[in-house]
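Predict the 3D structure for this chain.
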Amino acid sequence: MNEVSELSADVEALPVKAVAELLSVPVTRVHQHVRDGLYLSFRRDGVAHVPADFFDGTTVVKGLQGTIVVLRDGGFADPEILRWLFSEDDSLPGTPIASLREGRHREVKRRAQAMAF
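Done. Predicted structure below.
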């Protein structure tokens, strides 16, 4: 779990235990998902959280894992990836995570590839 203090406090986040309940998996599986890049976590007030925008109901937003993998492979650390996902991007427009949630995962992945390589 990485400390990310730059992620805005207005970004809704779920404690890892709540994510486990949402996905009907043990907490240890949530930690494994983070290691595998299915989604990312960060610490807020000393407690591990996952951004709520990473989920669409009880599933992970389509394209999130592929975007994370591309950026990790390109040398980006998880805190940098989190900041990028929640930063405004005029070329999308909006944030990359909002674009993923709207089903524009190919556009987001292309931008991630351009940044990473």
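Residues 67 and 110 are 9 Å apart (CA to CA).
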